[in-house]
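## Example record

The block below lists the input lines for one assembly entry, exactly as stored, with component labels intact.
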Amino acid sequence: MVEPAKKIPSDQGQEAIPTERQILNMGPSHPATHGTVKFLVEFDGETIVGMDVAVGYLHRGFEKECESGTYYQAIPYTDRLNYASAILANLGYCMTVEKLLELELPRRCQWARVMAGELSRIGDHLTRIGAACLEVAAMTPFLYAVEAREIDWDLQEMLCGARLTSNYIRIGGLLWDVRPGFEDRCAEAMERIRELMVDFDKVIAANRIFVDRFRNTGVLPKERCIAYGITGPLLRAAGIPYDLRKSQPYLVYDEIDFDVPIGLVGDNYDRFLVVEEEIEQSIRIVLQCLDVLRKTRGEPVNVADPHIRWPGKDRVFSRMEELIQQFKGVTEGIKVPAGEAYAAIESANGELGFYIVSDGSGKPYKVRCRPPSFINTQPLGEMVKGDLLADIIPTFDMINMIGGECDR
Amino acid sequence: METLLEKVQAVLGDAVVDSHAYVGDATVLVERERILEVLRTLRDHEELRFNFLMDLTAVDYLGREPRFEVVYHLAAIDVELRGTEPCRLRHRLRVKVPVPEDPCEVDSVVELWPAANWMEREAWDLYGVRFKGHPDLRRILLYEQFDGHPLRKDYPKEKRQPLMGPRN
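Predicted structure tokens for the full assembly:
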């Protein structure tokens, strides 16, 4: 703005129109950014030369709230981190507490967790690519993605009674076991999502307008991804096959057969294709989990320790001992040995880590969430530098900044 | 075989004040004055090569001396980059630095990992830990008029702030 106007030579050999730097405020509430975030963009003509991203509009003190309640009371807050894939956030938190407790989980619980997490991931990925299409004015593929997401959310509803704020994973187990008949319905639904994804892919992935807007925009090469701590589909799209499910297998991922798709250059189109393929890989994982869940029906899904998973209401209302255990568990919370632990899972956006410090009481001393959305949004300014104003939208969509997780 | 923690201690020498591997997380506590040097060594040493700064946060141990701790989570991820030796390592380390209440300050590591930029701004915003040499240490999640640092243990949870509006 303060710099003097300069002349840019045009490719026709003529002198181009002198331009002057200008600053544009985009957001915090803008129809093309799903999420509340403000961009302060500096332009030279129509080219972006600098950008400051202002986050924090959805800050609600997640970590402070967690420190004020018991370990169990923090689980519903984790639902509201990444509200497009709540089960994964539940899982990350509970696994960190279990690491501090050094718990060994029943096999059925681990398989059910993997399946629930992958359903959640499918929903998140469908939101990401569906919304990306919508925001570049492709309405039809958005509807395919939303139809598939509805099917996925119906399954999550059958699993835990809620579509978004699932609250399904518990420390040392699950809210309840997978309902009878779930396996067959889930297998059918997976086939239907596959069909929809084929249609989705045919409509959009080779569409000239779409490809032109996504290819070579928002590029972040792998060296810069590493420097910025980027994980998840963004890192894989840049060509680094890093996926926590493969590199540090947790739960039963080491027994499951699936592939990790990678991109070539790390532009928006690569990210789009990686996410699309990851949906297919998640479907493969879910189907393998269903086979195991069918075979292991009747096995326990919770740890046997009543101090960690207190007994169900059916026994609490009829027996003295169980009533006491429930009362103590609810009022005092579980006692986690003093110490610190960091555990991470591969969430839909990347490494979702929790760092918990315990002082030995029933309340966590510190709960830190390593939010992939926050860390992945940081290089947005660098990604769009040299691109046009319109390229901010697909880039922002493929980063998939989720306000609840980014701002906590 | 030499464990990661033993290797880190051998490389860092007397900069390490304390170490543990509770529930499998290798952790070292290092001197505050030497944090930048220590992290640079950890990033560049050919047998360690922590190429990722995964997380950076602070913890307030109110009543303990020194009061704060800044916690770095590092990771080495196997990558092949053009022009450099491929990294075949895969391990994680937690580095902790004790920080007193006054001066509540530690060297910024933005020059080592640009990822630290927002993370340090967040730690400043919520804990009031200053990062010396940070290019742009502003609040990030809260707004400029906010008074205090809410994740400090002596910040009351119910405290009201300017621009917050009436309690409903």
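The helical segments of chain B are 4-12, 35-44, 116-127. Residues 12 and 38 of chain B are 7 Å apart (CA to CA).
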